Amino acid sequence: MIRDSHKAVARAFLLLLLTALFALPAAASPATVPDTLRLRPTELQEEAEKYISRYLRQYHFRRVPVNDSLSAAILDRYLDELDNTRSYFLRSDVDRFRELYGKKLDDEFLAGRVAAGFVIYNRFLEQARKKMRYMIARLDTASFDFSRPDTLDLKREDAPWPVTQAELRGLWRKELKYQLLNLKYSGEDGDARKVLQKRYRNRLSLLDQQTSEDAFRVYSNALTTSFDPHTNYFSPMDFENFQIDMSRSLEGIGAKLQLENEYTVVNEVIPGGPAFKSKLLKKGDRIIGVGQGETGEIKDIVGWRISDVVHLIRGKKGSVVRLKILPVSQGGKGPAKIVRIVRDEVTLEELSAKKEVMELDGRKVGVISVPAFYLDFEGQKQNKPDYVSTSRDVQVIIDELTEEGVEGIVLDLRNNGGGALEEAVKLTGLFISDGPVVQIKNSQGGKMVLRDEDPGVLYEGPLAVLVNRYSASASEILAAAIQDYRRGVVIGSRTFGKGTVQSILKINRPFNFFYKSDDLGQLKLTVAKFYRITGESTQHLGVTPDLVFPSLIDSDIVGEDTYPSSLPWDKISAADYLSSSVLDEERIEELRQRYIERLATDTLYTTYVRDLNELKQFRKKKLVSLSEEGFKAEMERITLFKDNWTRQEQGGEESEEERPDGSDLLLEHAARVVMDMAATPQALPRGSEAAPWGSQKR
Predict the structure, then answer these.
(1) Which of 30, 31, 297, 318 has fewest C-beta within 10 Å?
(2) Domain of 558?
(3) 393 is an active site residue
(4) Which parts of this chain are annotated as the region Disordered (predicted)?
């Protein structure tokens, strides 16, 4: 928006005056909110913001118009980051934010200013301190009636903002009752009131320790994620932690964490790490407490900085850390759970592909589990003859399975979040002749095709690929290629839908004797998208299986399409490729009907679906009972379901979609699909004899 110079001056003066007035809302006074507690941006942060603005506009894949619509999107996202539960700000606060900044944040973005973000953050801190003091006082004096038929709305992201302070306090009272009940039925030791008092006193102390770095981090994240959910700014300290995660050079639990509202959320479970091996932690789980050793006190970490949480979780190799989590499978509701993990390093041995031979009705099916697409980049660079990679390991496994006389292979990519893209391409090449595997398009419209250049095919027999909602990125590329070439069938649930490419840019500025060159941080931003060989993007929609199996994973919480700012699905021109003439639509439909018929006669599957539908209804419930009788009944239902469909072994392992006897329900049915494929004349006979899989030109 362009204004005449005299209007701009007048507006700037008015805005400055309004900002100064608004910085101390009517409910506050200098006595209650000391000026020392008010945060202001530093010169370095203001300078970093200018570079963030420039880099986003120049290099991001999405060309976002910088206008009032972007301004509104940034403000909405920022308010959501600060107050997703609508339990801090009043309606009058939000109305004032929209009046002052609803159409101005685009101007601030262009100018590289962050003043508005700090004004809003200071108001948030003021309200958050009020809430903590109220909670502490109520726990000291109030009595609660848990026999009344009261409820609390746990999904308030779309709820109206409270109009009065009394309405806000009413929400806080209900939240207290919920927390007291939750502690009681989570098996928490000690007096629930004392536990909560300590929690809220700690949070109040943390609020008083907030710095300009905290305000800048949250506001910058709201700005960058308005372009897409995978674009983030890293301060110098944040980037140091990010590098440690990527290099995996310190002992910990092997998980990448991020802050969502006040909660520390598991963003990725790193294959080969302690959390991955334990199978106790899932993407989307909320960590609300951390305890050291077998008996150490579990510290409440809600509201903590992510860097402080990471520091608490890291520790000496071989030591024990206990995490108190709210499982994502329960939709953020239900009893908290304490998991025990032994700290260790991420090892390639744990990452490596594994094989298994299943025997069903006297017939053999090979299973290859690939937890991630790994590659020893240094070994490859140095031309070491024995460097480790996914495709090399799987090649050895396929040879071994062929020697053992399997009739077909199940390639298990469930929970595989991606990894080295070139390994996904090479692994695809073991099952197809030479041809394109994936297309990549950048923001300028340039297109690149990654191909399998080897005309040889290592394995030509029946093939099924297992996927679930946690299968992402490179996993989706492989599954899509197998599906598009009609080389095998994809079985499971729709994949994550991450079809974008990120790059990290260091924020550089002209040489200066007084500053380090990297003290403005880094920007991770989306620069390209993946496309299938058909031209369809894997972004947002993921890969839809040929044969669907319902999953415990909550697709309303997990997946690219759950992010409001995720890049959309689109389509470009198809690549030239040859598809199989064996697995045509008619043959796939025949396999699907046999698969459905078997599921219908599997009594354990019927029980699984019944229980899963009950779990879905529980997840969809917006209201949770605050009467003790109703709350207890709901917690018992969810606990019973988890006990029935997860496995707790001596080593503490837990796996989804398993029968109560420990066998893998989906894997067994997938193996039978492969046996159906092997029963046709076109399929691979027992042993190593090649099958005549024909091809047709597309």
Answers:
(1) 31
(2) 348-608+664-697
(3) no
(4) 644-698
